[in-house]
Amino acid sequence: MKYLIRFITRNAAGGSEFHDRIVEAPVITMGRATDQVLHLKDKRVRLQHAEIERRDGGDVHITTSALAGVTVNGKSQRDARLKVGDVIEVGANVIRIIEAPDGVDFAISFELRADASSEHLVSKWSAPSPGIGGWSKRRLSWTLAGAVLLFGFLLPWFGMQGFLAAGPVHNAHSGIANQCGDCHVTIFERVPDSACMDCHTVTRHVDDAEHAVLGTVRCATCHLEHNEPPQLVNQHQALCADCHADLPATVGLQRAGDFLDDHPQFKVSLKRPTPLDDGSLDWQIEHLVLADVVDGDRSNLKFNHKAHLAADGIMTPDGKRVIRCSQCHEPEPGGVGMLPVSMDEHCSECHTLAFDPDDPTRTVPHGDPEAVLQALIEYYSARLLGDDPDATGQRLRRPGQKLTRADRDRVAAQARTQALDIAADLFERRACVNCHEVTAVDDDALPWRVLPVQLTDEFFPHTRFSHAAHDTEVTSCDSCHGAGTSEAASDLLIPDIDNCRECHGSGERRRNSPAQLTSTCVACHGFHFDAKEDFR
């Protein structure tokens, strides 16, 4: 709502002057306090005395909680509807409701009564005073300033080790921002690690007798609080490089002092299968230098990225179609990693598991060779026995006819024969063999063995990487992974350190090219993890 306040002053000759002030606010507050919209000048007035506001019906009212109320047209009231011509008196202050000009919702004038007394307008504390209690104002001011300096700065500086100035609390601790004692258990002493451990259960970077040097490092060395801007983790390069740039050989880690020119080659974690005596596979994770991996990703999967990512498209049941990486590789919520690729969701639209041209919607289950064969046997048994109403030409049993035991055995044998023929086609020629390693075995129950597939979920389990952060206008999936030229699923499509250095540089800004981002250790590596052996 737009209000006009017209301030009127009268001079000794009886003339008047005025100036206007436009206020856009839902309420006009008035009182003796300096934060009121209309500052009243009578010490008998309360600090927040009254309010003028428009209510839902459109009427403008003045309300007050003061027991004496306000005088409206000579009558004391605590709630009154206002109209043009009304006169409000609050002590020596006179407020009149005047016609509102164009563009203004409500207008008032304000002036002091002609008989206003200085006794009412000036408080005894406003009068000049030579001092208080015999102390001059100058002497009192210097004494108070000295007390603030002594107790606020000098004593903590010289007498309290670890004195810290307060600052903003990080968002992670906003829930206890007003509970200082939860962290500052002893006044003027640094926050102990025990206060952190009361809420946080973490493992230290190195926590054994052989490498106990970090046992003397406090949590607050790396985790900063009360800083502007708030930053809970110390990002400085030296935080890690002071130790990792010159590690002893007994630690078993390579030196790493800077990502640009003092960092070892990447190591990847790969799932590696080991055959067992019963024919199954035992999958173990191996940590290998990326440049030294010669046999690639041994997942037992067959897949040709190049064929699927052809620029002119690939033939599908619905015609030719151009496939993008994002159609199969979908980011998980938050964009850090990728959701797993599944046959049902990403492949079955083009690679169907249909087996009967006369019934193209009927498919076999995926992922269980024994279930595939059983499904085929049941399907052809139903057709031969007449349980399938569409298979009238293949029935061995006519309506109302009972089969003998010999007939049932013959039906079962014929159904299995048909199922084995179709299964051989699926496993060896047109379906399973396209993506899986299939071998024929001497086993009447199931004559084929399909090697199980195990895809690596995390190639860098001890590194922080966000696909969402790298989804920019100047990057693409192929610029890092090179899938457009890969013809085998065993190709390890993981970028090496040189690929990352095209965009990520040193922890010191001055050593980077204009195209490189300043990248410190903590940008990619964490500190707290369960076992240091996994990091080697």
Task: Please explain how this structure is put together.
With 536 residues, this protein is of the alpha+beta class. Among the domains are: 2-121, Tumour Suppressor Smad4 (Sandwich); 267-341 and 455-495, no CATH class; 346-450, no CATH class. It is built from 12 helices and 20 strands. The chain has helices at residues 118-121, 137-159, 193-197, 219-222, 238-244, 305-308, 343-347, 369-385, 405-430, 432-435, 477-481, 497-501, and strands at 2-10, 16-24, 27-31, 38-39, 50-54, 60-64, 70-72, 75-77, 79-82, 87-90, 93-98, 106-112, 131-132, 135-136, 267-275, 281-289, 314-316, 319-321, 438-440, 448-450. The strands form 6 sheets. Strands 2-1-12-11-10-7-8 form a 7-stranded mixed sheet, with no helix packed on it. The protein has a 5-stranded mixed sheet with strand order 4-3-5-6-9, with no helix packed on it. Strand 17 and strand 18 form a beta hairpin. It is elongated, with a radius of gyration of 42 Å. It starts with a strand and ends in a 35-residue tail after the last helix. The relative contact order is 0.08. The model is unreliable at 122-127 and 532-536 (pLDDT under 50).
